[in-house]
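The records we work with from here on pair a chain with its fold. The integers have meaning only within a learned vocabulary of local backbone shapes. A complete example follows; check for yourself that the lines match position by position.

:::
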Amino acid sequence: MADLTPIASWTAADVQHFARRAGFGLSPEAAAQLAAQAPAAAIDAWLDGTGLDVTLFANVLATRADPVAEPARSASTTPGSVNVPNEPGPHPYRVDPANAWRNNFSRSQAYLAFRMQYAPYAFGERMALFWHNLFATGWHKVNNAALMLQQYDVLRAHSLDRFDDLLVLVSKDPAMAIWLDSVQNNASGSSVPNENYAREVMELYSLGADNGYSQSDITQLAKALSGWSFTVPTSSAIVDPTDPSSTTVGSGTFRVYDGSANPDPYIWNLAKRTTLPTMHGSGSITFLDRTFDVGTPPAGMAPGEDALRSIVTSRDAQCAAYLAKRLLVHFVTARFTSTDLSDVASMIQSNQFDVRAVMKTLLKSRWFFDPSNRFALVEGPVSWSIRAARALGYDLAAADALSPKGFPAWALVVSGFDQAGMKLLDPNGPNGWSEDDAWLNSGTIRYRTRIAAAVALAEQSSTGTPSVTYRLFPSDISQWFPSAPATPQAVLDRLVALLQPAPFPAALGDAWLQALWPSAFTWDPASADTQARTRQLAYLVLCSPAGQLY
């Protein structure tokens, strides 16, 4: 049974467990600060974006002499959303949709990694990463980084909306329209609708395979969603806005291709200026035992949208169970019982699929904080890397003061995400990535060790013309230790407090310390010897089996 009643008090260890799952970790000092607050109010604030994680960054952001804003691709209209800076600071991954490099995939990955490391609102980034896996969409088919980032913006901005609202937004998203062939879904006249998205929106995004729907439901929903596509703004000088050599705003606007006038007089997939083609079907459908007029939608909805929204109400039990399973495997445990799943699904239904309310209930619950759920999950390679960089790297102000700036590393490191098992922005298929122990095998752990080396061992790289040499992840070991450690064990204890691996045998730690400090211990953070030994110990903690759990 999942006890979903809220905890009444918490410790710094509880806070660290919460911050690992609902963000990318907290330092021991910050965890102690948060532990002094009442858990219910502190967790509400953390999820709402007014908590300690945002406050800790506020002074840095407020004193910036060169505030920046992320290029406008899509605005958030999330009720109660928090007004935090879109970008946490200047960075080398400027997302300029008017530039030809908008199709630079690795730069877009690097931008997201930078943002996860430094963004004030860690929970918003964590939720966007979660939804990116559930609504998995891949650059290798979309072939437009700006559209991929536009979708990621939607996932971040609306991550705590009602689930049916988010489902509709994703279904209208231009990257998704390309990814699952909505742009080819034509139900006008005698045309046969393309069923790809209609199938996957139930099988992968809301209900689960063969769970409460039939082939007829797929066919009927495909008709309801026919003509759902997008247009792009262009100028008369643009030949093809999907051509990477062009310079055009890399954004798309949802349209239903129903033969009406085109506010952006260019059809991206037809490569010509024209009115919207007629692709949307008409008449009535029967979907999930209900009848809908797909040509006459309710006020404020696109044609066919009411049928799509009905998934959550017509199959609420199946949808709640599906969402519950995905949330549990990411945030709580993969070893839940059928009763646990039923309890969480019932809670989702009682909260009417309001994700904000669902997450507040789940992350305050005694079940979430139960010791059996601590370090019960293998952490995904992206969040694992971000958490390590946050723990050992400079804060934003210090990194920004470096020359070259202290955050160019992600452009070279993100390629390791693929080999480590999660190619950010580019899953292999619409089913996304399997989580927990599926993250680990003999190949992926090898690349985790390479990322750990980049973060912990002060590795350097040279790039550019003229060549500039910089540390991949600048850090200063003296900043890791508030006071000088008197023994090797004190060094290990502090690194464990920072990196927060699962508990491991004391004999293992003893063996590490004996290998690194076989004779007399001295502490001089300015010396190359102390630097090397301390960094090697941090590397061992990160690479250990315990270091993969969170």
Remarks:
- The first strand starts at residue 228 and ends at 231.
- Residues 62-373 form one domain.
- The CA atoms of residues 239 and 503 lie 59 Å apart.
- The two ends are 22 Å apart (CA to CA).
